[in-house]
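Pipeline run #58 for the internal structure catalog. This entry was flagged by the ingest filter as a single-chain record with no existing model, so it goes straight to prediction. Upstream metadata was stripped on purpose; only the residue string is passed forward. Reviewer on rotation: M.T. Logging verbosity set to normal.
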Amino acid sequence: MPTTYQVYFTEQAAAARDRLDDPQRAAFDKGISVLARDPFLDVSRAISSTGDDRTVRLTQNILVEYSITMGRLLVFIVEVFNDKDIVISDLDG
């Protein structure tokens, strides 16, 4: 039976999560449940030398950074990207 990691959030990450609108929150929660089953997904990448601190885009616009230790997954960054927050659009060339 596969292990599911217990998921925790720092205050900063929880505050960002709580600001998501309903469709974003539903997608976020679905992504977190996938991550809790496998925090070492192929689409995630290590951001520390040990590989236990990782980053992944849960959705097109939501990136999380997290740490895995002793059966726990701690989400410490939730970054929400908004197309209005860009300097140069990819379409600008």
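catalog note: The longest strand covers residues 72-80.
catalog note: Helices lie at 11-18, 22-37.
status: ready for reviewer M.T.
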